[in-house]
Amino acid sequence: MMKLLLATFLITFGLSFQASAGEALSLTAQETYDLVKKQGDQMLFVDVRDPVEIMFIGFTDAVDTNIPFKLADRSKFLADKGRFAMNPNPDFAASVEQALKDKRLNKDALIVTMCRSGSTRGKPSADYLLDHGFSNVKYIDHGFQGSGSKEGKKAGMRIVNGWQNEGLPWSMKLNPEKIYQP
Question: What is the mean pLDDT of the chain?
Answer without folding.
Answer: 89
